Structure formats: structure tokens, C-alpha cells
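User: quick one, sequence for these C-alpha cells?
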């Protein structure tokens, strides 16, 4: 089990490095196309930092491990709001643009409800997965078209890159992510069996935290630099992407059945999404007190869901 734990830690590093390269390449091209910093955070950065969730869930679905596949998505969405926004807002209060409250947060809440409706019977068919994929494409096209009406954001810590260099980062990032995701899934299963817990619990905790490391690093750095658009857009966009694209693609590749996600997990993923909306409304700032509350809620979730004794 010790070697599995060490390899799991190594996989965290690979996932972080791969996502960082993917984000750098994708954001560099997106900024050349004139997208705003908020939209880059909602799409390119969010999708890039969610690429570990994508590869891990797809690999788990292909290998017939639905608990890991679905648990990773649900656990990552809880982690993104409760831990990542909690940490980022403790570093520096996050200012919220009106467009996030008016447009993006309601979409995230609606997508969360839709994802839970699909998972109501504990299964996701290929048809349901296909519908989620279509919805992800519609959302991405819509958000980019909406961005054309907004002023391009500059000086947000992201820089345009040459096409050749951007492609190098994108391809290199994908290769590193593939290696990291394989290590994480294989060794997390070994740890789950050694601890006597279900694959769903491992997916909701260890794997969810591991695949969310890129989001945590991106949002924390954004908070240090005062880039609220990147920090908040990254989390909101990642949560939308995880349900629509990650869960959708995993189900299309291999229908998911018997995921093992419990009512408490569904309650927390919905609860964090619901609570985030009023937190953003209060002064249009997510302050340090709200961040601390989010972190405490995640600690409570871990205590409630982890097997006792």
C-alpha cells in the first residue's frame, strides 16, 4: 500500500503539470482570439484544469469502475466550491462580476440539478450521456458568443502565445495528463481495497482532491494576483464542464450503472451550488468569513461520509 500511496502522490504532480501546460497553451490561443479574461476562465482555463477529471472518469468508466467515474465528478464539484473557493477567498476576497451572478451561476445551478436528475436511478445511459455532451457544446458556443459583446480583458496574468509554442504545451500537457490519470486510478483502487472502503468513497475524496489540484493551484494563484475573474470563472466553469462533458463522455464510452453515490453526496453537491449564489450576491464579494464557512462545510462532509471505525 505504501508504494501505491507514493505513486498516487506522483500522479498528483503529473496531473498538475499536465493541466498547467494545457491551460497555458489553450489560454494563450484564446487571448489571441480576443476573449475576455472571465470567459477564458470559464472555458479554456476551466476545461483545461478539468482535464484530469475527464481522463480519470473516462478511464474508470472504460474499466467498468462506475463508482470512481461518478464519484470523481461529484466529489470534484464539491471540492471546487467548498475548498478551492474557500482557500482563494481566504487569500483575498473574490470580487464577483454581475455577469457571473446573472448568467453563469444560474447555469451552474441548473446543470447541477440536471446532473442529479440523470443520476437519480444510479445509472447514466449512452443516450443521457449524449444529451449532456450536446448541452456542453451549446453552453460553450453560447458563452463565447456572449463574450464577443464584452470588452477584451488584459493584464490578467495570462499572455497570448505563438501557435507553435501553444500547440507544444497543449500536446505535452495531454500526454502528461494521460500518464497521471492512469497512475491515479490504478493506485487509488489498491488503496481503496486496502482500507476496505468503496470505490465511490475513494472517487469522492482522494481522486476528487487529486484531480482538482490544477483548479486549486490556478484559483489560489489568481487570488494572490488579484485575478478574481480567473479564480471564480475557473471554479464555475469547471463544475459545469465536469457534469456536462466529463460525465457525458464517460457514459457515452461506457454506460454507467451502480455508481454507489449516496444521498449525502448528492445533497452536498447541490447544497454547495445553492449556497454559492447568495454568497456571491452579498456585496458581490466572497469574503474571508464566507471562505472559512465553505472550508468548515467540507470538513463536516468528510466526517459524515467517511466510514467510521
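Assistant:
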Amino acid at each position: 500500500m505504501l508504494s501505491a500511496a507514493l505513486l498516487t502522490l506522483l500522479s498528483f504532480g503529473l496531473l498538475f503539470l499536465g493541466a498547467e501546460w494545457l491551460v497555458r497553451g489553450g489560454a494563450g490561443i484564446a487571448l489571441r482570439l480576443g476573449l475576455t479574461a472571465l470567459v477564458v476562465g470559464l472555458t479554456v482555463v476551466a476545461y483545461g484544469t478539468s482535464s484530469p477529471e475527464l481522463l480519470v472518469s473516462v478511464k474508470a468508466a472504460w474499466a467498468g469502475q462506475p463508482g470512481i467515474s461518478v464519484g470523481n465528478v461529484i466529489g470534484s464539484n464539491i471540492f471546487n466550491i467548498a475548498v478551492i473557493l474557500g482557500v482563494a477567498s481566504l487569500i483575498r476576497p473574490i470580487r464577483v462580476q454581475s455577469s457571473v451572478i446573472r448568467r453563469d451561476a444560474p447555469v451552474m445551478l441548473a446543470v447541477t440539478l440536471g446532473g442529479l436528475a440523470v443520476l437519480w436511478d444510479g445509472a447514466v445511459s449512452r443516450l443521457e450521456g449524449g444529451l449532456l455532451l450536446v448541452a456542453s457544446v451549446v453552453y460553450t458556443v453560447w458563452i463565447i458568443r456572449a463574450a464577443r459583446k464584452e470588452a477584451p480583458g488584459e493584464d490578467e496574468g495570462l499572455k497570448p502565445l505563438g501557435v507553435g509554442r501553444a500547440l507544444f504545451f497543449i500536446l505535452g500537457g495531454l500526454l502528461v495528463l494521460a500518464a497521471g490519470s492512469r497512475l491515479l486510478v490504478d493506485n487509488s483502487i489498491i488503496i481503496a481495497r486496502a482500507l476496505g472502503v468503496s470505490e465511490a468513497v475513494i472517487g469522492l475524496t482522494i481522486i476528487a482532491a487529486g484531480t482538482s489540484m490544477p483548479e486549486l493551484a490556478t484559483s489560489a494563484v489568481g487570488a494572490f494576483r488579484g485575478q478574481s475573474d480567473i479564480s471564480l470563472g475557473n471554479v464555475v466553469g469547471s463544475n459545469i464542464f465536469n457534469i456536462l462533458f466529463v460525465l457525458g463522455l464517460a457514459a457515452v464510452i461506457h454506460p454507467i450503472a451502480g455508481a454507489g453515490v449516496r444521498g449525502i453526496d448528492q445533497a452536498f453537491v447541490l447544497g454547495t451550488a445553492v449556497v454559492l449564489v447568495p454568497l456571491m450576491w452579498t456585496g458581490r464579494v466572497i469574503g474571508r468569513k464566507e471562505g472559512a464557512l465553505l472550508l468548515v462545510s467540507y470538513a463536516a462532509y468528510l466526517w459524515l461520509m467517511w466510514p467510521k471505525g
